[in-house]
Amino acid sequence: MRHYNPMRISMSSSDLAGKVGVITGGRQGIGRACVDAFVAAGATVVVLDRGAGEPVPGAALTLAVDVTDADAIGAAFERIDLAYGRLDFAVNNAGIDIETEPAAEWRAEPLDLTVDVNLKGVYHCMRREISLMRRQGGGSIVNIGSVAAIVGTPTRAAYAASKHGVVGLTRSAALEFGKDNIRSNIVCPGGTRTPLLEKVMTDNPTLREHIAATCPLGRLAEAGEIAEAVLWLASQKASFVNGAVLPVDGGYTAG
Mind telling me the catalytic residues? Predict the structure, then answer.
């Protein structure tokens, strides 16, 4: 296995300076890396995360919101509107992956919760985001998918279905609201070094080798590498990118 040689990743994007945006699930992993990236670019970041506790460092505002609660999402966006009066970008990152059953053992509970968080949660957030962005004349939405939004995944059918659904939401919004200068895109990460995946790999030591072996680059991604792609899509550097499904997976889905 090839080892990753850490490199300095620039998170600067001057056209995001002074912009206001929301990041869901921003307390850890890819979401936290996105918070750091946008703050470094000079943006004002509001974090929505169900986890209670201290504010996320760097975020202008941290709100405790469960994305399965449409009323709580609505209240959060009303607060954002009152505080800032605008919304320039949104990163819908909150998600779960709790499923391990083979098809013959599928149960309703993992399906319901996975779809509620990963698909309905994005849907309800996008409704509010688009409403604010239309009022001001534009904005950029970046949804976080997965390679499981592009290919099937054994023992994780509900997760794959929910992420495929987010692709449908993203493309539909791109078609419908492009005329309002609202761009909607989705980033689909491959195996990424996050606290959640590290725990899973600790419980299953062969998983790390499997992920690396199936990735042409021979390693996991760092969360900051995913955040770099998200930052680019949200910025005016990607001003003509709309409805894109962008794998950031080291080439995993190329074959």
Answer: 159
